[in-house]
Structure formats: C-alpha cells, structure tokens
C-alpha cells in the first residue's frame, strides 16, 4: 500500500512538471487522441466494403477494439519506465537504482510515469461503450462481472508483456524492435476477431503471447457466442488465470534479468 501511495505521488509530481510546459502537454494529448481516432478510422474503413469480418459485425468488433485499446493504453502508461530500461543499462544509471533501498522493479516504474498517456483511454472507452450498446449488451450486474475482470486481466497481461520485453534488455539492449512485435503487434491482433487469422497465429495468441484473453474471450462471453474451432466453452472464463500466469512469468523474467546484470563497470 505504501508503494502505491508513493507511486501516486510520483505520478502527480511528474505530471505537474510536465504541465509547466502547457503547450507541449496539450499537443501530446491531442496527438495521443488523434492516434486512437486514426486507428478507429482504419477499422471503420474495412466495414465500408464488407458487412462482417470473420462473421463479426462492426459493433461487435468495436467491443474488441475498445477493450484491447483501452487496456493496452493503461498498461503502456504504467510501463513507460520499462521502455527506458535499455537506456538505463547503457548509461549505467541502473547501478544507482540497485544501490537504493527501494526495490528495482518499483523504481523502474517510477522513472517514467506516463499519466498523460491516459488521454488515449478515453477514446477507446467511448468506442467500447458504443459498441456494447449497439451490439445489445445490457448493463447488467452479470455483464459487469465479466467486463471488470476482463479490463483488469487485459491490463495485467499487457503490463506483463512489457516487463518481459524489458527484461530482454539484460541480454541485449538492441532488442527494442523485437519487443514491439509483441506489445504493439499484440495489441493490433487483439483488436480484431482471431477468426480471421490463420491457424498458426491463433495458436500463438492463445498459447505463446496470450492476447486472445485480453478482449476476444471476454467478448465472446458478453455477446453469448460459443467458442469456435471446437475449443471448450470454459476457456472463455480463463482471462484472470492467463493474467496470473503472465504476471508470474514476468516476475521470473525480471528476477533472471536482474541476477544476470553485473554492473556497467564490470
């Protein structure tokens, strides 16, 4: 709890510093919203030519798009510091982090707090709400019991992928683009029904990089759609389990990386 309070204070102090440059802050916020709008426009253009994609209507795909985009934006905001880890290792400043009493994991989070990136969340949330309403998903306690854990699980899965990707920097600091394949690429894939992808990619997003648990499986529950491809229906309920598994793997990856680190001066 103390760490959460400290994180909140650091986030607020960081954003107050950013707000000293109001024009820069405004432009960055507008840019973040514009990126979300452009992504949605690209999705909308698909449906100008076809009525459905993989048997999914525009309103149904909007649920996937909004849920995946919102959880990714939240996770990315929380994981900004991990994106800077390669620089910390190259510059040798990670040594100072290890010398401090607070844990290295928490300190890396605090080195880059991206609260201003939450502006992207609003756009995705609006798309999600509209998609749910247009698709006929009622705001019942049962659906809320599906949507809320889905959001938490999606954030945890994406955040874990960011942590695992950052731990890769302990072995090579030149792997940023490889990591982006799994972070930004995973978010893109999760924004569409996996029905449209080839079988090998479906296996990847279920078993290896489990972004199917971010939006696809929870959306099947919300729409009361059966599992495709002969998969068991109970798999639709397992997003929290996938999130926990990702968090454990991220923890192991982080520990392995920090143990391997031998200081910039060695």
Kindly list the characteristics that best describe this protein.
mainly alpha
Describe, in plain words, how this protein is organized in 3D.
With 266 residues, the chain is mainly α. The protein has helices at residues 2-19, 22-46, 58-78, 80-83, 85-91, 94-99, 104-111, 119-134, 141-167, 176-190, 199-208, 216-222, 239-260. It has one domain. It is built from 13 helices and no strands. Helix 3 (58-78) packs antiparallel against helix 8 (119-134), helix 9 packs antiparallel against helix 10 (176-190) and helix 9 packs parallel to helix 13 (239-260). It is globular, with a radius of gyration of 19 Å. The two termini are 36 Å apart.
Low-confidence stretches: none
Overall structural class, as computed from helix and strand content, comes to: mainly alpha
Distance, first to last CA = 36 Å
- Provide the residue-averaged pLDDT: 83
Q: How would you spell out the order of helices and strands?
A: HHHHHHHHHHHHH
Care to give the gist of this entry?
The chain is mainly α and 266 residues long. Helix content is 70%, strand content 0%.
Topology of this protein?
Blueprint: H1 2-19, H2 22-46, H3 58-78, H4 80-83, H5 85-91, H6 94-99, H7 104-111, H8 119-134, H9 141-167, H10 176-190, H11 199-208, H12 216-222, H13 239-260
Helix pairs in contact: 2-8, 3-8, 3-9, 9-10, 9-13
């Amino acid at each position: 709890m103390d760490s959460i309070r400290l994180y909140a204070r650091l986030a607020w102090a960081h954003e107050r510093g950013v707000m000293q440059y109001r024009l820069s802050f405004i432009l960055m916020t507008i840019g973040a919203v514009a990126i979300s709008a452009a992504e949605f426009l690209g999705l909308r253009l698909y449906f100008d030519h076809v009525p459905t994609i993989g048997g999914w209507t525009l309103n149904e795909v909007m649920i996937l798009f909004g849920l995946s985009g919102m959880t990714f934006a939240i996770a990315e905001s929380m994981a900004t510091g991990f994106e800077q880890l390669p620089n910390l290792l190259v510059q040798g400043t990670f040594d100072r982090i290890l010398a401090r009493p607070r844990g290295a994991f928490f300190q890396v989070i605090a080195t880059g707090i991206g609260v201003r990136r939450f502006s992207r969340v609003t756009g995705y949330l609006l798309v999600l709400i509209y998609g749910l309403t247009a698709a006929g998903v009622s705001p019942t306690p049962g659906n809320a019991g599906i949507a809320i854990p889905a959001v938490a699980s999606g954030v945890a899965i994406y955040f874990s992928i960011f942590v695992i990707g950052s731990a890769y920097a302990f072995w090579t600091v030149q792997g940023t683009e490889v990591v982006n394949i799994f972070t930004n690429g995973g978010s893109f894939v999760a924004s569409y029904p996996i029905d449209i992808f080839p079988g090998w990619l479906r296996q990847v997003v279920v078993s290896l990089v489990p972004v199917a648990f971010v939006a696809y499986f929870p959306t099947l529950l919300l729409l009361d759609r059966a599992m495709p491809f002969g998969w068991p229906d109970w798999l639709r309920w397992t997003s929290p389990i996938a999130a926990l598994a990702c968090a454990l793997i991220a923890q192991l990856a982080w520990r392995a990386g920090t143990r391997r680190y031998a200081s910039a001066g060695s």
